[in-house]
Amino acid sequence: MMSFPTPPDVIRHIERTSAELVARAAQFPSSILADVAGRRGALSSRIAPLAPSMRLAGPALTVEVRPGDNLMIHAAMAIAKPGDVLVIDGKGDESCALMGEIMVSQCMASGIAGVIVYGAVRDTEAIRALGFPVYAVGANPNGPTKLVPGRVNWPISVGGVSVQPGDLVVADADGVVVVEPAKAPAVLEAAAKKLADETARLEGIRNGSQLRPTWLDGALRKAGVLAEGESL
Question: What is the pTM (predicted TM-score) of this model?
């Protein structure tokens, strides 16, 4: 019977979304990207920025930990590349913090682009003062253990969304969106068109030339609210 080598718990080398795609994606709001990606890929609203001004974009470096233990986050930080976004599956646990000011300071010094934690953090005032993008489900002053093995750069589930190592991650005040690298070029092209359309729509509202959407009558007819040929 053939045997196959077992992949290591820490995978050091992954295929990342390109820097060019990351730079393009950073120009769009998360809401635009979520819409054109089929309204999928948006993490639970429980995962929110520590400050509304926080923004990030980059390839995902995925981390799976046992609730309340941050050993594998330290391992991930040791192998992260500048521009990476740590995406941490902490199982949504809020009983203790997985990261605080010291670890965030190390992330900043290493050139990491930001951190998404499906769990809690602490030292939130200090992190806000640093301005480093951190998204979490809450805060808790309890510290974590550093005892339990986990995985780095394996597929994880965070906030109801499957995240693969290297996926494109974009986050702002509205939340976090994850896009598969293979779909990113088409999503970004669609995002540019949608942003242009919405900009024109807003201009029409502000100057009074288009105070209701052009699709409204058609949608009402399709829903049976208006008869064929009838308009509001």
Answer: 0.92
